[in-house]
Specification:
Low-confidence stretches: 1-15, 17-22, 31-45, 116-123
Helix content: 25-40%
Strand content: 5-15%
Strand order of the largest sheet: 5-2-1-7-6
Number of helices: 14
Mean pLDDT: 83
Structural class: alpha/beta
Order of helices and strands: HHEHEEHEHEHEHHEHHEEEHHEEHHEE
Distance between the termini: 119 Å
Radius of gyration: 31 Å
Largest sheet: 5 strands, parallel
Shape: globular
Length: 391
């Protein structure tokens, strides 16, 4: 009888489990190392971005020691909005040229827009003391580090700026060029300028923003109107957030009166104004009529205004719960040094509203209290007070 013998399996090598274990450990180690590298890279995007930006913006652009100066505004200054238009223009050129912008370390405060009393000074004060008393630190208004995430910025009182000046002097003609009347396109394309460490621009003597004459062409605008308001200093943003949290769900209006409704008499003694409907349109009875279709009855309405008459907006309370920045003195009194800071906080609050109504339209889609254009042809007209239509 034949027997079928069971075949013996070949004995496995004693080293086989050890090799499998080593291979597994090695694979896990490599996987861990790889994931750690990915994690490290992902956790530091800002650092990598900052290094790339620093390489890109290793050259500098300087427009002057003060906004709109040199020029007609060296001895005086315009309001915050006017100066921001000029500053935004300079920042756009820095972006276009791929340069770090050297920002003035202080901003002039127009006395019309300030009531904090910092402008009282001795008649014997030096020009430097007068400038310090009529200006505020730029970094008390804006978050320079936050701004540098879009366009690198240094202040003109910083160590880096002094280093740049020192280096440019050592480089001589290869270090700096003082330019006037040269277009930004030539500054970028002409190696005579583009290779220099520092471009010292003399901007328009009228105002810096005149260098951005094509701002009506929206495709040429690199920075939106909302850019600088959103770059407010950290402490101002924090205060705005506290007030917004207290307001809850709210709407907001910005009522520009004051300087905008001023009149002057013509040679016949007739009062005229640049905005003929503005005084009428920003009175409470007309505001109620205008905003009724946008803001429902019973809503909380935050009001920011340069109107100084006490109780001026009280008639609005028949329909809305009114709120002002003055209601939050416990947050603002220890923080606010001037009206520029106050308005920057108010702007952030208004930007957070469910419905925001401006005085004038900035864009076609904006809601506004008046149909008068913000910018005009300097045509002085007789003010209009009668209603165009019934409410």
């Amino acid at each position: 009888m034949a027997f079928h013998r069971a075949s013996k399996a070949k004995p496995k090598s004693a080293r086989s489990p050890i090799l499998v274990l080593v291979a597994a450990v090695t694979a896990i180690a490599l996987l861990f190392l790889f994931s750690s590298l990915l994690s490290t890279t992902a956790s530091k995007p800002n650092l990598l971005q900052h290094r790339q930006q620093k390489q890109q913006f290793e050259k500098y652009l300087y427009w002057g020691t003060r906004i709109d100066c040199p020029g007609k505004h060296c001895g005086s200054c315009e309001g915050l909005g006017h100066q921001e238009s000029s500053l935004r223009c300079a920042l756009e050129e820095a972006i276009f040229l791929g340069r770090t912008f050297v920002m003035p370390s202080r901003m002039c405060i127009n006395p019309i827009h300030n009531k904090k009393g910092i402008l009282h000074h001795s008649t014997n004060a030096s020009s430097e003391e007068l400038w310090a008393a009529s200006s505020c630190a730029m970094d008390s208004l804006y978050d320079i580090e936050l701004m540098s995430g879009t366009v690198p910025v240094i202040l003109d009182n910083s160590k880096e700026w002094y280093r740049v000046l020192s280096t440019s002097m050592k480089l001589g003609a290869r270090g700096v060029a003082h330019v006037e009347g040269v277009s930004r396109f030539e500054l970028k394309e002409n190696s005579r300028y583009s290779d220099l460490l520092l471009i010292n621009r003399t901007a328009s003597p009228l105002s810096w923003f005149m260098e951005c004459k094509d701002r009506n062409n929206h495709t040429a605008i690199m920075l939106p109107y909302s850019f600088l308001p959103s770059m407010a200093a950290g402490k101002l943003r924090d205060a705005a957030e506290k007030i917004k949290a207290s307001l809850g769900d709210y709407d907001a209006i910005h009522v520009r009166r004051g300087d905008k409704i001023k009149t002057r008499k013509d040679r016949f003694g007739v009062a005229r104004t640049l905005h003929p409907h503005l005084d009428r349109d920003t009175r409470p009875e007309f505001i109620l009529c205008r905003i009724a279709k946008w803001v429902p009855h019973g809503r909380t309405l935050f009001i920011a205004s340069n109107e100084r008459t006490p109780g001026f907006f009280s008639p609005l309370s028949v329909r809305y719960r009114l709120s002002y920045s003055s209601n939050y003195s416990h947050i603002l009194d220890q923080l606010i040094e001037n009206n520029y800071q106050l308005f920057m906080i108010e702007r952030l609050i208004m930007m957070g509203a469910k419905t925001f109504i401006r005085t004038f339209k900035e864009d076609e889609t904006d809601l506004s209290l008046t149909d008068d254009p913000k910018k005009n042809t300097k045509l002085w007209q007789i003010p209009v007070y009668n209603a165009d239509e019934t409410c």
